[in-house]
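Hi R.,

Here are the chain sequences for the assembly we discussed:
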Amino acid sequence: MINVLFFASLREQLGSEKLELSSDGITDVQSLLSALTKLHPNYNNAFNQSILVAVNQEMSTREQTLKPGDEVAFFPPVTGG
Amino acid sequence: MTNDNIVIKVQQQDFDLGAEMNKLHQNNVDDGATATFCGRVRNNNLEQDVIGLYLEHYPQMTEKQLLQIAQQAKSKWHLGRVCIIHRIGMLNVGEQIVFVGVTSKHRQSAFMACEFIMDFLKVKATFWKKEVHANGQKLWLDAKQSDQNKANSW
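And here is the predicted structure of the full complex:
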């Protein structure tokens, strides 16, 4: 399984803060995104280029390879402080 | 989280500026300088009347990032203690959001490290602000290019 998390405006837009997805056929972040949008067509427009990704709590890219058990988080650019 | 004279706290509750200063100073006579920054919720942004801020974060990742930023500051300057506190949840106008405190032997390192930590916290730490306006509207804030430029300048 891959554990997927969403934060802030993306979380609200998708109406979901986390979900688990079978890791079958998921090799990298990009293929995870394809699987997510196939499952939830309404997710299609949400993942624009400004959305950032962290894999196992480290900032990452859409080319990052994934393995079962990974935690993948998607979120907009940060605005703390 | 406490590590090598670094204190990182992400919490809902308020913090006491005087108490945090005292902790930086307690049993610390090696350092003569303390620089601090405190950020608070202001009542206006982009010509809107603001009545509050909601702060969301990515638990665990945020703490790790703040620790990394503090460690980077310690590797760049000779620092004694570093404390970073950031609040989450619903905050009203005037409430404290963030505290950064740094000690060093002399003022220059403390001033610079304090600014460095805030600049990187702004662009790296996984916090998101949602503004609550006086007219009832709620708005997730956009990241600012000026913050990125400031971090890039280091």
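Chain A has a mean pLDDT of 94. Strands of chain A lie at 2-6, 18-21, 52-55, 58-60, 71-75.

Let me know if anything looks off.

Best,
T.
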